Amino acid sequence: MSDKPLLQVKDLKTYFFTASGTAKAVDGVTFSLDSGKTLGIVGESGSGKSVTSNSIMRLLPKNGKIVGGEILFEDKDLAKVKMSEMLEIRGKDISMIFQDPMTSLDPVFTIGNQIMEVINAHQKLSKKEAREKAIQVLQMVGISDPEQRLKAYPHEFSGGMRQRVIIGMAIACQPKLIIADEPTTALDVTVQAQVLDLLKNLQKETGTAIILVTHNLGVVWRMCDTVMVMYAGKTVEYAEVKDLYANARHPYTWGLLKSMPKVTDDPNVPLASIPGTPPDLKLTGGSCNFHNRCKYCQEICMKESPEMKEVAPNHFVACHFSKEELEKMGGSIDE
Ligand code: SF4
Q1: Is the CB–ligand 1 distance for residue 296 below 6 Å?
Q2: Which DSSP string do the residues of 216-234 spell out, in sequence order?
């Protein structure tokens, strides 16, 4: 077995070309992921987390382009393979789960038709074999009476069941990597937990790697091995999950962690938030992208973009200042 990571993304840059300028939606992102492991990508809207995952799948709108870097999946650079090859890889080697199960399923076809279509796209099976496989898939994702359920239409399923079907379609061809973009955001809290447990259990059985895109740090804690925090198109912190929670070092990560609701919170005290708004992605570069919201901003932060530095084993941070220097400025996660 190869000891190379399953996926290595190196200095990925994805830009959007608009009439009013070039938006650097992803601007130099680097990470890797091993088989059987889960990476969480967190950040607020517009941070580049979904564009990063859509770049891996080459699912970009016409005005979006990968302008630099590599996406090494096994021995292929997905940034450069022909689209015909990418169509083979999608669904078979890499699957994607989107946020809203209703828009991911076609309302005019039965659940069975849609699962069998995915299976038939990548495997040469007879109709009977494909149907049997679809039944197995529904069983795997915990849907009872699967033979009857194959005949149902999406509107006959609850939101949680539809998301189970989507997960089933994602695993139908035993992909090596699943990218789940906010897979539980559209679901009730109790169903969210069931769907996350299902994904985790399927991962244990199949050894697939997962990239989980989320804005929810609680989900990261529950599901992930490593986490990458993104802000305005750049990675600001990247670490093993336990290390990040115990020893976060970037002021933006502190802000995210502080804004997580806790059961011990006083309901009369408003949740902590990060004041200000993210920068216009057409104007970033040449400074720390977080400088206009950072309490510890110094002159250098407005003149130079900080490089990623390894500050502890497997813990990378992009800030001009060390944790100790920030602490001397009065900075801490509790501040
Ligand atoms: Fe804040 Fe400067 Fe660090 Fe950016 S580089 S996070 S502005 S202290």
Answers
A1: yes
A2: -HHHHHHH-SEEEEEETTE
Q: Is 294's C-beta closer than 6 angstroms to any atom of ligand 1?
A: yes
What is the rounded CA–CA span in Å between residue 227 and residue 161? 28
Instruction: Please give the backbone phi and psi of residue 203, each rounded to the nearest 5 degrees, phi first.
Output: -65, -40
CA-wise closest residue to 284 among 60, 64, 52, 46: 46
Angle between helix 127-140 and 159-171 (nearest 10): 120
Contact 226, 240 (CB under 8 A): yes
Exposure of 23 in the CB half-sphere (CA atoms within 13 A)? 18
pLDDT averaged over consecutive 10-residue blocks of the chain (335 residues)? 85 97 96 96 93 96 96 95 94 87 85 92 88 91 91 91 88 91 79 84 91 91 95 97 94 90 74 85 93 95 96 96 89 68
Q: How many CB atoms lie within 10 A of CB 265?
A: 12
Q: How far apart are CA 99 and CA 314, in angstroms?
A: 30
Which residue minimizes the CA distance to atom 5 of ligand 1? 319
Return the sign of the alpha-carbon dihedral for residues 280, 282, 287, 290.
positive
CA distance 331 to 325: 8
Closest residue by Cα to atom 6, ligand 1, is 319
Q: Which 8-state DSSP code applies to residue 289?
A: T
Residue 335's pLDDT is what?
64
How much distance in Å is there from the Cα of 317 to the middle of ligand 1? 11
Residue 147 C-alpha to ligand 1 middle, in angstroms? Answer: 57
Ligand 1 in contact with 320 (CB < 6 A)? yes
Helices (H), the chain: 49-56, 83-92, 101-104, 111-122, 127-140, 146-149, 159-171, 189-206, 217-223, 241-247, 251-258, 299-303, 323-328
The CA 335 to ligand 1 mean position distance, Å, reads: 16
Q: Which atom of ligand 1 is nearest to the CA of 296?
A: 8
Q: Establish whether residue 301 lines the binding site of ligand 1, counting it when its CB lies within 6 angstroms of any ligand atom.
A: yes
